[in-house]
Amino acid sequence: MAMAKHQADLVRCSRQPGAAVGRVCAAHDGRCVACDSMVRPAAPARVCDGCSGGGGGHGSRSERCLVCGAGAGEGGAAAVADAYYCRSCVQMEKDRDGCPAVVNAGTARRDAAAFFFSARSKRGGFRSTMA
Amino acid sequence: VRQQAADLISRIAIVMKQCQEEQLMGHLGVVLYEYLGEEYPEVLGSILGALKAIVNVIGMTKMTPPIKDLLPRLTPILKNRHEKVQENCIDLVGRIADRGAEFVPAREWMRICFELLEMLKAHKKGIRRATVNTFGYIAKAIGPQDVLATLLNNLKVQERQNRVCTTVAIAIVAETCSPFTVLPALMNEYRVPELNVQNGVLKSLSFLFEYIGEMGKDYIYAVTPLLEDALMDRDLVHRQTAASAVKHMALGVAGLGCEDALVHLLNYVWPNIFETSPHVINAVMEAIEGMRVALGPAVILNYCLQGLFHPARKVREVYWKIYNSLYIGAQDALVAAYPALDDDGDNIYSRPELAMFV
Predict the structure, then answer these.
(1) Band of residue B287 on the pLDDT scale cut at 50, 70, 90
(2) Could you tell me which residues come within 8 angstroms of residue B267 by beta carbon, excluding any fewer than 6 positions away?
(3) Into how many domains does chain A fold?
(4) What is the pLDDT of residue A131?
(5) In this predicted model, what pLDDT tens digit does every residue of A112-128 receive, in sequence order?
(6) The domain spanning residue B13 has which CATH number?
């Protein structure tokens, strides 16, 4: 999946994709969800029913980026565009590998979150950060 | 109010053109030009949008203020970090580069090129796309030589993020001005005996072939000696980046008759299958996958068969890994390439046609 080149610990869903097309946030817009390439988007990246938030794509999951999981509550608008595979990945049939949604956070993101929360508790809990 | 007025101008510009009000449009152009010092970015973005609409409608030759005065005022605005300002400014510069490049001296275009390099790492896709188009127009207008000289210099001296942008810019120049204008200078740069410079060149080649796709078929034979050298270099990163370049080359020219060069390169890629570094092994496996698409799975299977039953377990594991990926990607096409084995006393290896249906 995208970022798999840079973060080996990310796990993708890989279930049978349905009809719903995955969505990505502004940071991952224009990138291939399999190899991170920015050129020649060729095929829409379809996700499974679980990752699309139900068959119709109306659930809260459909508003999340399928690469980084950013939701509408986490720093502005989440999913801004459809996800695509690049032409190289379509040629090598990586678009047939199942649902491309990332299902775990990855150590880099977990470490960042842990650092944020530990720093916040040292400064005196939740209230002091809201000031 | 200023913002809404500018937005209104950009909406009604086409209608005013149809009403033959070109003189009034020219006057509005002068007024907007005087407002380019606006401090609020939302307003400035709208003013640039209005100027763009006027330029589109009345053309480069009749534009007031003249293009040669307008463009130098836009160069510092490109430094503005606001997304709306960036997008509108790049669109306006791109339109001028496309239609009226001759009104502006080449030195000014060079200045703009280096402001645009920064924009290639913008977060917003629209800005990146507009930057790519504008860069292409400028390279076409002033020729690749001057731009390329500075880009290759950037490849040596800048920090990593800027080198990535430079690589993208080199690929854009190659596509708009044809790769033969870029490749000689790029390959000449590889002769510098310094790791970072050579890696930069290989990265550029990799992205260049990814970007130009099937245009690359005429240049495979030109870069093959360079890639040979990189694929047998002592440094791991050289081999990794060269394998990535080979992958993009193979996928770009699949089915276009460059199989002899690709088989030659495969002979240099193949010994790297025993590497232990995860990045290198990923790049090599990707290169072999690309070769599977370009050369067909039968060729890769013939390379594979030699090690599937090797006495050493570590060798077998690598070869079976390649075979498994081959089997997943092209199971049906492998049938014709399986070796024909003679029956022995206990085993019957022949498969009659009837077995296909049963």
Answers:
(1) very high
(2) none
(3) 1
(4) 44
(5) 656 655 665 555 554 44
(6) 1.25.10.10
Q: Which one of A27, A29, A93 has the shortest CB-CB distance to B329? A: A93
CA distance B13 to chain A (A): 30
Among A6, A38, A84, A86, pick the best mutation site for testing chain B contact (most B Cβ within 10 A).
A38
Least CB-CB distance to B289: which of A8, A29, A92?
A92
For residue A82, give its domain range: 20-122
Q: Is position B206 within any domain?
A: no
Look at B210 and A37 and tell me if their CB atoms are within 8 Å.
yes
Is residue A88 within 8 Å of residue B251, measured between CB atoms? yes
A84, β-bridge pairs: A32, A44
Per-residue pLDDT tens for B8-40? 777 777 777 667 666 677 777 777 777 677 777
Task: For residue A93, give how far its alpha carbon lies from the nearest alpha carbon of chain B (Å).
Answer: 7
Cα-flanking dihedrals φ and ψ of residue B206, to 5°? -60, -50
* B332 belongs to a structural domain: no
If one counts the domains in chain B, the total is 1
* Residue B185 Cα distances to B3, B137, B191, angstroms: 47, 21, 10
Does B234 fall in a domain? no
The pLDDT confidence band at residue B51, using thresholds 50, 70 and 90, is confident
